[in-house]
Amino acid sequence: MGGGTGINTLYMTVTASDIECLSVELSPLKFSKAQMLYNEWNRNILQSNEPFPPINEKKDCIFVDLKNYKVSHNEMVTYLMSLTHKDSVIIIDGIRTNRKLQTLWKMLVQQDDTVVSLDLFHLGILFFDKKYYKRNYKLSF
Q1: Each residue's pLDDT tens digit in the chain (141 positions)?
Q2: What distances in angstroms separate CA 82 from CA 30, 64, 100, one per listed residue?
Q3: Which of 40, 32, 42 is nearest to 5 (CA)?
Q4: Residue 96 and residue 66: Cα distance in Å, rounded?
Q5: What whole-number distance in Å separates Cα of residue 105 and Cα of residue 34?
Q6: Most exposed of 10, 38, 57, 109 (fewest Cβ within 10 Å)?
Q7: Helix, strand or coil, per DSSP, at residue 136
């Protein structure tokens, strides 16, 4: 989500060309630039310009670039939580870009389904497996 011009999406699919990936980008200019880039590579990347595209199955990994993705916090939290299962991982870039995005990060960390969170200052990672104790880690380096 917040696919930008497509470089992060290509980076995430580099390990295997058969990975199914959905890139969501709301900016028409970035969307078209990403589309041109994806056409040059043999990857299974679908594109959407809907803020919350309908997805019928839970996802293993979700990457959100908050600097490229401006939507309602409550809707974002509800949408992301609806896509997760116990083995899901959500990676969020830009959690400290501004106070609003810090608030969104805190909302995600406080969800009942979120079990472990890693706060890496600009990047946040969420895990959902209930076999772990609920913990929020702040890592500085």
Answers
A1: 888 888 888 888 888 777 888 898 889 999 999 999 888 887 888 999 998 999 989 999 999 988 877 788 899 999 999 999 999 999 999 898 889 889 999 999 999 999 999 999 899 999 999 999 999 999 876
A2: 26, 15, 22
A3: 32
A4: 10
A5: 27
A6: 57
A7: strand
d(CA 134, CA 141): 23
Residue 76's contacts (CB-CB under 8 Å, 6 or more residues apart) are 64, 104
Side-chain half-sphere exposure of 73, counting CA atoms within 13 A: 13
Nearest Cα neighbor of 110 from 79, 134, 76, 138 is 134
